Amino acid sequence: xxKKTPLYQSHLDASAKMVxxxxxxxxxxxxSQIAEHELxxxxxxxxxxxxxTVVDVSGDDAxxxxxxxxxxxxxxxxxxxxxLYSCMLNVSGGVVDDLIVYLLNENFYRVVIxxxxxxxxxxWLNQHAFKYPNLSITERDDVAMIAIQGPNACEKTLTLFGQxxxxxxxxxxxxxxxxxxxxxVGRTGYTGEDGFEIMMPIDRAPxxxxxLIESGVKPCGLGARDTLRLEAxxxxxxxxxxxxxxxxxxGLGWTLAMSDDREFIGKQALLEEKQQGxxxxxxGLVLKGKGVLRNHLKVVTDAGDxxxxxxxYSPTLRQSxxxxxxxxxxxxxxxxxxxxxxxxxxxxxxxxxRDGKANI
Amino acid sequence: xxxxxxELKFLSSHEWVLIEGDVATxxxxxxxxxxxxxxxxxxxxxxxxxxxxxxxxxVIESVKAASDSYAPVSGEVIEVNSELEDSPERINDDPYGxxxxxxxxxxxxxxxxxxxxxxxxxxxxADEE
Lengths: 360, 129
Known about the structure:
CATH topology of the largest domain in chain A: Gyrase A, domain 2
Strand content of chain B: 25-35%
Number of domains of chain A: 2
Strand order of the largest sheet of chain A: 10-11-12-9-3-13
Number of strands of chain A: 21
Radius of gyration of chain B: 13 Å
Order of helices and strands of chain A: HEEHEEHEEEHEEHHEEEHEHHEEEEEEEE
Strand order of the largest sheet of chain B: 1-2-3-9-8-5
Number of strands of chain B: 9
CATH superfamily of chain B: RNA polymerase II/Efflux pump adaptor protein, barrel-sandwich hybrid domain
Low-confidence stretches of chain A: none
CATH superfamily of the largest domain in chain A: Probable tRNA modification gtpase trme, domain 1
Number of domains of chain B: 1
Low-confidence stretches of chain B: none
Mean pLDDT of chain A: 97
Largest interface: A-B, 18 and 13 residues
Helix content of chain A: 10-25%
CATH class of the largest domain in chain A: Alpha Beta
CATH architecture of the largest domain in chain A: 2-Layer Sandwich
Mean pLDDT of chain B: 95
Helix content of chain B: 10-25%
Oligomer: heterodimer
Largest sheet of chain A: 6 strands, mixed
CATH class of chain B: Mainly Beta
CATH architecture of chain B: Beta Barrel
Distance between the termini of chain A: 42 Å
Shape of chain A: globular
Structural class of chain A: alpha+beta
Shape of chain B: globular
Strand content of chain A: 25-35%
């Protein structure tokens, strides 16, 4: 028996196929993963993401602490509610986790981390807290989270709010958030589509989920969430990067703020890696013919072998796509070994799909 | 509850077989398509190839995973369902009809005795659930 989110019964009522995900009983799909994927690209779907870990970091030292802990710089957050994507690194420059941090006010940040890494992350956060006397780290296991995603997601969600709240939420830009009563609404997501991620008190979640269904948003499972994020060129922690890979070889160089003299955990290792020359790159691959690219398949290039980190079928492109870690500098075409055959795949610019449109 | 037609024979690896004279039509069961989820690619044996019972002769890929599909009987492949190349979802929609995979001209009719009947297959999938 796994852990259950407040929406567990709602999933059973909707005939979800439940699977174990990092110790949680979660819906993988409600009938068809591909139909759910297409719904999010074309209209709106929603995901129960209450298994994710929400941590509030507050106090006079919160800013200094997070600037030391995170590889991206929260000093970039200039306005209340603004969100930032960042990696949290170990001293070797490996990724402890990736996360989103929201600025709630000057001394108050909300951090959303992965569920599979919860215990490790909480330990890591606390381990580095002792130097900061005015710091409070609080895990918010009293909130549920629902992600509503798709071109019509915002519009359909807004109908559930009152007039004043609607205009407040309408003015949110991408990667901005606002508190609305006991709801916290971020215009963020993990699908490459517009939408909201909404946190709310646990006991409000089942009714809100039902109201979303009534306003025309259909439940979607973690299966669709995975193919959507892959099409959007977004990494999955533990699959595309982990504690042994640096952001520099994980397509996450853009998330590193290291041009000034700010010190952060892992910075020294990253500087050394840059100086020695970054050996690998994370790229997007599109399979030329029929077949499906899968995690851990070997990628053969002129400069040596690489490996697929996330591979699947892209419902939008109707062909197989993947993220792969291969030697740096390789461009053009590579080969992937599938069942002892070498199949051609092309290196493409990420994302594969954004806001419903294929970039390939 | 999965659909298990009583006129068919089965393998415990979830292939179904329809025997008509010395020709066996092979597909994957409703239970298997349901477990695999949306199918996106099917690799079938070549027409004219000779296959042996127990060989891995086809690959069925869903969004989730790739699965080998095994030959229930031995013989020559005389026809494949080439519609599956562009529409693998036929297996999801109609596993015992439009979703058939290939036909074999059987070498040894005694092999049919080795296959599971519908009741035995129902017991088998009950064990898995």
